Amino acid sequence: MSRRNTKTQEAVLTLLREEQYAMSHEGITAKLEEPIDRVTIYRILNRFVEDGLVHRIVADDGRQYFASCAKNCAHDLAAHNHLHFRCTSCDRVECLQGPLGVELPAGYRADNYNIAVSGSCKECREE
Amino acid sequence: MSRRNTKTQEAVLTLLREEQYAMSHEGITAKLEEPIDRVTIYRILNRFVEDGLVHRIVADDGRQYFASCAKNCAHDLAAHNHLHFRCTSCDRVECLQGPLGVELPAGYRADNYNIAVSGSCKECREE
DNA sequence: ATTTTATTGCAACACTGTTGCATTATTTGA
DNA sequence: TCAAATAATGCAACAGTGTTGCAATAAAAT
């Protein structure tokens, strides 16, 4: 199951790398110049997550957001252990600051961290 | 919009209070003796959340889970600032330990904390 | 007992994300 | 360079979660 290079994948990855916010499928669709099928976008994103190029955040609106991984964070669980903030006004999701001291009780194993706080971001509050 | 007492609401609240895990709509339906309409359950749960009787967790499967609030946590945002763990084997969601030191950058306001970690719980790992 | 209106149940919908399958396009290797 | 193998795409259809509209029901208030 080796990967192939395609324009569509390139377009999505470039978009995610340029954007400072985590993007939902909806946001990605909106920003793409050439329209790409909804299903294809989801499949591309899932592949990126599998390959560790992108990380997946489930915000507290229950939707998936995707953000380009910082370099070398591929498959590094700890690197995904940071805070995500969703602004309920502008609906942007951003990754904030470094790792949090989230500790599980003995005997538990974490496979995925999903730390999502929602509220109003600085920009929206200043308006 | 004052509230009225009904058997259905009583049944759902009792269920949530007896259960040590946070429950999804699905789980609630499964445990109810008298069947209650899906829509009604959602409406009851949303009312409970509004009234601060129950808190809502969005796990990293994107689904809503509901847990009876500890006494006096009603509308107290800080009290909801704790870790939620979803076991991907037994699919149970539990509320773990005390508040976390989640700090937002200056200018941000948090309206909702949703800290969800998934993995394997102690019980499932011991099997 | 009667009125008021919160609650319920049904049908229908909106939305997110996935699966199946035929078609297209990238790789690979002769 | 061309042909075969197969990854990626697009369309249709589906599954699941959660919501809204509306008529029927039932709790509370008079």
Automatic annotation (TrEMBL), chains A, B:
GO process terms (BP): negative regulation of DNA-templated transcription; regulation of secondary metabolite biosynthetic process
InterPro entries in the record: FUR (IPR002481), WH-like_DNA-bd_sf (IPR036388), WH_DNA-bd_sf (IPR036390)
Cofactor-binding details, from the entry: Binds 1 zinc ion per subunit.
Keyword Endoplasmic reticulum tagged: no
UniProt KW keywords: Metal-binding, Zinc
Cofactor names: Zn(2+)
Annotated binding of Zn(2+), by residue: C87, C90, C121, C124
PANTHER family associated with the record: FERRIC UPTAKE REGULATION PROTEIN, ZINC UPTAKE REGULATION PROTEIN
Entry protein name: Transcriptional repressor
Pfam family, one: FUR
GO terms, molecular function: DNA-binding transcription factor activity; transcription cis-regulatory region binding; zinc ion binding
Keyword Zinc annotated: yes
